[in-house]
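@channel sequence for tomorrow's demo:
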Amino acid sequence: MAVQMVKFLCGEGTVDLRIPESVRVLEMQPAKPLSDPDGAVRQALTDPIDSPPLRELAGKKKDACVVISDITRPVPNRIILPPMLNILEESGIKREDITILIATGMHRPNQGEELESMVGREIMDNYKIVNHYCRKAEAYRKIDEIEGAPIELNKHYLDADLKILTGLIEPHFYAGYSGGRKALLPGVSSYETMKFMHSFKIIDHPKVRNCLLEGNPFHEYGIRVAKLADVDFILNVVINKQRTITGVFAGHYNHAHLAGCEMVYHHCTARVDERVDMVITSGGGYPLDSTFYQISKAMIAARDILKKGGTIVVACECREGLGSPEFCGIMTSVCSPQDFFDGYCDPKDFVIDQWCAQSIYQAIEHAGQVYVYSPGLSQADLEKIGAIKIENIQETVDRLWDSHPGVVAVPDGPYVVGICNT
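structure tokens (generated this afternoon):
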């Protein structure tokens, strides 16, 4: 049997597997890195999409809030932030009047060496950087209601004269695509807002899925909030497999984002004629696969091209284990997908991080078996949720070939979305 060697992202390295040449490998379309990413960022800020140049906007403002993604997103902040911050200061906004707000959502804060790795020492030491805390009532203010739920955003953002969102556009299993409006909702939203946006009902919606915007309530609510919250400007980037910048999109919070989404769609999706018997995938590598919490993205992407009762094999490092205490509590308190669905479908029973547990159980309920190769997880971590821990992923897939005639490999995990034609 002729074989090919495929490198699956895992932590900061790869897991290399020999797989039959007949297996289709879904990969990002080749995308050349920008030859001058710094220049591309400056050009995008000067000639943005459906917006005045940032310098013109900043010249009329007394202070600014720049929202950035947290450590779970590989955003090249060291490239995109300096030109932006320079323009703000050159336009008359004093450095002490610029706040960089980390859109943690419900994640932990980013500090110390972790923060330095995100923005660099120069920015870390010379600018006011604030983590968003969704549970601090004094940190946010209500601006709207959706279906009776309060929409509350961080005051650092709301009170700023100039409001800027930054981020990375990539497939997202709830919002369709990350970036744009997502920096606000859920990035700097309150816990009560998150309870609605990540409710069992929203996550269960059939159009809450990868690479779909039309009719997707997660996206459409985000656009509604971005408009109401007076987003002045966005700066989003697209990266390739090597995590170098391939596109820069700046300007109007929706129009610039949509232009970036179009690029991502052509770069990060692959058509599959029919559902397959087995999907071999990865958690996307570091930092995304630091916890099993984020592996829900890879599992949902696998589910969407998998036959009912098929098999998922996933490689993920999980150097920080399962995830937050709340997530661990969910994953160790139920024994089956139905137990989870019964226990968490009522909004009154909402707990933090239940949405990723919901996605994991959706994938497990659909699949017949889920095998997990993960140096950071124990057998006890996985067996409670119905997954199978494996120590040798090569031996496992070798054993499964004969009983799974239709196989797809997705070495980059959730960064590549298979779209089934049937």
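heads up for whoever presents: The chain has two domains: 3-28+273-420, 37-266.
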